[in-house]
């Protein structure tokens, strides 16, 4: 049997020993891949973070706390952010127009005048938490091959963990997955499914409270969006551009408004074109020459008309 590689593609390979379960009464080995966290958008905590992938499907924070403690001792692990939890936490209760304006402000400028006070923010956070429906699972399951970011106490802890992973390959004493966390996490299996069936039908009072809180948050954010649109109107950004907003209506403009805007745009372009037509000197000279030639042409035509009238008048003989 070939020896287990210590690193693969820049990742340190951490073998985990999976103990037998009633559903699968055989020991198994799961491989966790670990490296320094180097995201595209840097943050102050990157130096003390580890990126992990291929995490087990039943992963929880206590599981990884126990694994890190088995490698470098307790007190080094702070938290772990699972990729799935990060995506789900970005769900917003904002209306579409409010979210668009909020994103616009973040790009346009960074000022504190649009921020609420700390007291208002805490109250709003509580309202938003109530507005979200309660979860129906006591414990989430991860997709196969999922990722996460482990936050450690300091950058020295990152070095210690990576060195400890290398020593694991020599000692062959792999961390036991789930050891010492049975009482810290809800159980899986039939108990997990039974709890899900119970949580799937929350009390009517709790549902009504969430619905009421949702509409309160929704209406507040719509009002904030309308006020924000007023502030943004006719206010140039750092590049000198003005954001066009309508605080009274967020729906698309009517057909007649669109046609009127199109007509004004065409008139503006035509006026600009006419003004630019006489911009260069040679164009002015050519224009004057054309006007003079046109005057000479008209003068010749008028002179021929006068001569013709004189000839007709000379042949006229009045009756006696």
TrEMBL record:
Alphabetical GO biological process terms: ribosomal small subunit assembly; rRNA processing
GO cellular component, one term: UTP-C complex
Family: Belongs to the RRP7 family.
UniProt cross-references to CDD domains, sorted A to Z: dRRM_Rrp7p, RRP7_Rrp7p
Ribosomal RNA-processing protein 7 C-terminal domain segment(s): 200-319
Domain of life: Eukaryota
Family annotation (InterPro entries): RRM_Rrp7, RRP7, RRP7_C
Record's protein name: Ribosomal RNA-processing protein 7-domain-containing protein
Domain (Rrp7 RRM-like N-terminal) ranges: 8-196
Lineage: Eukaryota, Fungi, Dikarya, Ascomycota, Pezizomycotina
């Amino acid at each position: 049997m070939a020896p287990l590689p210590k690193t693969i593609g820049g990742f340190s390979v951490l073998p985990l020993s999976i103990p037998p379960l009633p559903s699968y009464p055989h020991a198994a080995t799961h491989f966790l891949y670990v490296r320094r966290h180097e995201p595209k958008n840097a943050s102050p905590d990157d130096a003390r973070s580890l990126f992990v992938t291929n995490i087990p499907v039943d992963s929880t924070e206590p599981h990884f706390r126990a694994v890190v403690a088995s490698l470098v001792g307790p007190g080094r692990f702070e938290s772990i952010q699972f990729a799935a939890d990060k995506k789900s936490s970005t769900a917003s209760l904002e209306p579409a127009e409010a979210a668009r304006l909020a994103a616009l402000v973040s790009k346009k400028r960074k000022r504190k005048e649009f921020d609420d006070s700390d007291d208002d923010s805490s109250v709003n956070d509580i309202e938003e938490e109530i507005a979200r429906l309660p979860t129906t699972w006591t414990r989430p399951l991860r997709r196969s091959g999922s990722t996460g970011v482990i936050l450690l106490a300091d950058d020295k802890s990152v070095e210690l963990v990576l060195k400890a992973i290398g020593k694991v390959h020599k000692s062959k004493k792999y961390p036991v997955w789930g050891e010492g966390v049975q009482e810290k996490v809800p159980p899986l299996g039939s108990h997990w499914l039974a709890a899900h069936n119970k949580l799937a039908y929350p009390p009517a009072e709790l549902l009504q409270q969430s619905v009421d809180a949702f509409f309160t948050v929704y209406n507040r954010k719509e009002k904030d969006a309308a006020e924000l649109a007023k502030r943004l109107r006719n206010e140039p950004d750092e590049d000198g551009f003005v954001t066009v907003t309508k605080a009274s209506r967020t729906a698309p403009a009517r057909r007649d408004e669109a046609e009127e805007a199109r007509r004004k745009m065409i008139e503006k372009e035509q006026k600009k074109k006419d003004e630019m037509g006489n911009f260069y000197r040679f164009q002015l000279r050519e224009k004057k020459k054309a006007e003079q030639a046109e005057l000479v042409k008209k003068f010749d035509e008028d002179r021929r008309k006068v001569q013709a009238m004189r000839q007709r008048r000379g042949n006229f003989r009045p009756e006696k």
